[in-house]
Amino acid sequence: MNEFRSSLLKLLDERGYIHQLTDAEALDALADRQVVPGYIGFDATASSLHVGSLFQIMLLRRMQQAGHKPIVLMGGGTTKVGDPSGKDESRKLLTTEEIDANIAGIRKVFERFLTFGDGPTDAIMVNNADWLDELSYIPFLREVGRHFTINRMLTFDSVRLRLDREQPLTFLEFNYMILQAYDFMELSRRVGCRLQLGGSDQWGNIVNGIELARRIDGTEIYGVTSPLITTADGAKMGKTAQGAVWLNEELLSPYDYWQFWRNTADADVGRFLRIYTDLPLEEIARLESLPGAEINQAKIVLATEATTMLHGKQAAEAAAVTARETFEGGGAGANLPTLTTGASVSVLEALTGLGFCASNGEAKRKIAEGAVRIDDQVISDPFLVIPVPRNPVKVSLGKKKHGLLVS
Questions:
Q1: Where does the chain bind L-tyrosine (predicted)?
Q2: Do the annotations mark residue 176 as ligand-binding?
């Protein structure tokens, strides 16, 4: 662990957020003597962020906890281009109306993690469409484009990896790194931003912004990158066999969100508690050292703390109670996903309607594998019609997916 003076870098370091820094000594000194405004950008490609973005949201939360000013940059402009980083193909181009609707859906999540306002350490949200949409092409090329060489741009991972795989990279996407660099310089001009944070795959883009601001404005700004988070089995954080783990409750219920964290691998518990909760480090050290099956108690704490932060204490406690009733008591917890039916419903409709299977074909395969249970009884008939009396009927897929049918 490094010896930092500022509370900001100390906090980020001890919680496991730091991968690389530009001019660590100067940034540490700056953060030790004044409030540092720092930003992370989020493109609005969907109506909700997923849990893979939670690391960045928590980074901004840590900034505010350390007495600094978080800036949430919504990519109303850059979403129209599409970040090629880590992608084998171009993103679908969205209309301005679709992007604005996505920003509205995303905005409410940040209000649960950050305090917004007009104070020196209050968070602000800005939209890069405010300046990118107003750029004139030739003046932009003359002012900004001349500072970027094609030679260097071709060495960036976002470009090189796409070309190495012989996947097309459009000129539109090729411009993304220039626009991101311009964002950093523009934020330093507009709101005094001195720091950009991001994943380790954004290092080159962050350095571009630092160099651009130095060359054009003579401004000293800084960058911090964080390790890309994968689970203990190497999977990308936020991706599961069932799809993305969304942060908006209309796309993923608080119970399913709680269950995602409860299913954390033993080897990830301590790391995730440090990154995704506000628990004291001493308590985390105790929890991650629990022996044998007792580590499950740490997973329950992780699930409840993470769900409380996003959905509130009441939803988190309800999810924990539902899980306990379902898994320990053999009952049907009241907060399980629910499908309203008539007096009866086919098992295929039940599985797809509850969101457990994406298609009837997948549902049939799960039934053939013996993975489907109705009121805890394994079923083998894919054409079964389930009577739905006044009492709810519990439908289970595997050990971790449970839902209720109600008439």
A1: 39, 176, 180
A2: yes
To 5 degrees, how large is the angle CA 354–CA 52–CA 308?
70
Sequence-distant (6+) residues with CB within 8 A of 57 are 49, 109, 110, 113, 114
Determine whether domain 338-406 maps to CATH 3.40.50.300: no
Q: Position 278: which residue type?
A: D
- Beta strand extents in 48-152 (DSSP E only): 69-75, 124-127
255 annotated to a ligand binding site: no
Range ranked top by mean pLDDT from 81-85, 93-97, 176-180, 216-220: 216-220
Cα 123 to Cα 72, 300, 309: the distances in Å are 7, 30, 17
Judging by DSSP bridges, how do beta strands 243-244 and 239-240 pair with one another?
Answer: antiparallel
Tell me: is residue 242 an annotated ligand-binding position.
no
Phi, psi at 91, each rounded to 5°:
-70, 155
Percent of the chain at pLDDT > 70 equals 93
Three-state DSSP state, 180 = helix
Q: Report the amino acid identity of residue 213.
A: A
Q: Tell me the one-letter amino acid at 282.
A: E
Helix/strand/coil for 372: strand
In angstroms, the CA 47 to CA 43 distance is 11
Residue 267 has φ and ψ, to the nearest 5°, of -70, -15
CATH code: domain 7-226 is 3.40.50.620
User: Could you please report the per-residue DSSP string of 210-243?
Assistant: HHHHHHHH----EEEEEPPPB-TTSPBTTEETTE
Q: Is the dihedral of CA 196, 197, 202, 204 positive or negative?
A: positive
In Å, the largest CA–CA distance within the chain is: 73
202 is in an annotated binding site: no
Look up residue 116 and give its DSSP letter.
B
Amino acid letter at 334?
A
| Domain range 253-327, CATH class | mainly alpha
Average pLDDT score, the chain: 88
Q: What are phi and psi of 255, to 5 degrees?
A: -65, -45
What residue segments make up the domains of the chain, in order of their start? 7-226, 253-327, 338-406
